[in-house]
Amino acid sequence: MNISGKQVLITGGARRIGAAIARKLAACGCRIALHCHKSVAEAEILLASLPGDGHTLHVADLMSVDATATLCATVGKCELLVNNAALFYRPGSAEDLNSAAAYERVNFRAPEQILQWFSGQNLSCGAAVNITDCSALSPGSGAYYESKAALTALTTALAVPWAEKNLRLNAIAPGAVLPPAWAPESAMTKILAATPLHRATTPEEIAELTAFMLQCDSMTGAIVPLDGGLHLS
User: Fold this and answer.
1) Are 151 and 170 a contacting pair, CB within 8 Å?
2) Which partner from 49, 56, 130, 131 sits 20 to 30 angstroms from 159, CA to CA?
3) If phi over 0 gives left and psi between -120 and 50 gives alpha, with beta otherwise, what is residue 224?
4) Which helix (H) or strand (E) holds 122?
5) pLDDT of the residue at 150
């Protein structure tokens, strides 16, 4: 698929991985429909820096079913979609232990709702990418894991019925990328030591793979770990 001129909705696109994806896809000629929740100032700065025109900002709390529905309704026709928004708290923290419902909603149900809207647009062709987590590729436990495992499973479950509509759906499963928001000074020493390549994935690498997945007409139902081999250890 030639993605130049196509509109792409990127959830959680104001910062970090989402911002890298927005920059890459704008450079490919896409019109960016950038979603954010609280990072409005950062989103506005990012949008102003992107090449091309027709980029738009959409503010919505994905915890809300109604707000998510409004987001989909106001974006307009999108041939491309990147489900990137996610919650991740410090493992074992009070926020982590008390956020099962939030993890399920933001990391799984909201993407599921957006995917349902996307596939119902009556597009002649389209493509979407879910950003999951390499932890979901191995047995695990906990509410965060369960939300990402559900999104991973949904990707493969939808691929065949979507193909009948000439729609493609793939997922990227990153490992260590950037220090989490709750530990901005972390060197990620422990997780990188357990990573066979002993290096973090860059946001730009995830953005490059996202662009490839959106463009590659023969690729669907793929879950690609981009984690330095962490899922193997």
Assistant:
1) no
2) 56
3) beta
4) none
5) 98
